[in-house]
Amino acid sequence: MKFCLPDQKIISDPLLGLINISEFLPLIDVPEFQSLAFKYQLGLAFLLFPSATHTRKQHCFGAYQRTKTLMRYWTRNNMVTKDQARTVRAYALYHDIGHGPFSHTVEPLFDLLPKSKRTALRADDAMALEIVRGLRKKIESVGVDFKLFYDLCQHKNPLYLAVHDKNLGMEKFDYLTRDAFYTVNEVPGVDYLSRYVYFIDKQVVVDEQAMDQARSIQAFYIKMSKHVYLRKKSAIIQRLIQKMAYEMVKDGISVNDIWKMTDFGLLGRFELSKNPLIRYYYSRLCSGQFPKTAMDFKYGQFLQVDKYREDKTMHIFGFDEETLNSMLAHPAITNLQSLAEIEKKVARIAKIPSEMVIVVPPMSHHRFIPEDIKVYGRDGRIVKLSDFYPDHFAAMAEYGRSHHLLRICAFAEYRDQLSKASEKIKDYFLSFIR
């Protein structure tokens, strides 16, 4: 008897073991997906955590495998159809396909575009839609409902939450686990929790039996924020990358061309740039010589916590909520062009070279605003996790606020001089809102 053996493509993953990617090989073997192998999931975090060189391609395979397992549960329990499950699996594979180099780090470049060319979507989401439209024939060739797939990419169909729910999405479970594995060498209990995640009444919910595990995952995310995502040095390095990318735009390279580069491609452009400022920053970056914080502007309620860190080269200023919110939301702080002018002004106040000053705005605040988790009770009611653990959510919100701050930094040789001008610099920033 002649056997017809299946043509299988299997990859090995350090966290999930063997992953069979055979069903979507045509989607994988395209340049747009393959380029994710040259984009690090955590950007330049490998400068702090040498093992954090995992890529968005690796993460997409992980999100795909986790979604594949979830869809098997949901199909078995009639929460989705087989066709829907297949489309959601494909969406998980492509959920990061629109990301640019160093991801959200260079996203503020899009604010430099004329208003007529901007989009209401986040840059990675807008680029993803453009890529997906161009790959329509490929997507349909593997038996995927393109209309549903496109709706998932636009977040119009609630099934996208299987992948992208802020608390219970499979891509969240994967990046949290993967990032932790390569940085703090811990693995949260997402595998157990994922077995109790359901799709009911067009909502992603967690079984009441797994409420404590859901709360633990949120607490673990706060831990990762503290030790990895919101690290001070990470924020400073990201701002340095922004400044170099902004110089490229000034040199005539379009924002869209920068966004289409890989991490390696952008770093290569920095290294070969004829712009002396880019070359200078890049040489300091490669030498591990990063700017140091001279001043922090933050909410006054957190001032006492950080007082022990204050010394003659580091000043921490506390402000009331209205004042700090107004300052951090001011257009001069949120726009790269005006931020560059602010850095020059700060340098003049401190009487140091302008290229030595780095002003670091808050990182994406919305990412760290806690979102409630819906809980499915055995009586059929859907309630909120905060109904059971209100203090837990209050603590998360407070942690996010503690990291909503402005940093004013300088390279080490000018940090003392910048610090000595801290009072004048504080008054300068307050002048924005007077």
From TrEMBL:
CDD domains membership: HDc
PANTHER family: DEOXYNUCLEOSIDE TRIPHOSPHATE TRIPHOSPHOHYDROLASE (PTHR11373), DEOXYNUCLEOSIDE TRIPHOSPHATE TRIPHOSPHOHYDROLASE SAMHD1 (PTHR11373:SF4)
Domain HD, chain residue ranges per copy: 58-134
Protein name: HD domain-containing protein
Top-level taxonomic group: Bacteria
Any GO molecular function: dGTPase activity
Native species: Candidatus Harrisonbacteria bacterium RIFCSPLOWO2_02_FULL_45_10c
GO BP terms: dGTP catabolic process
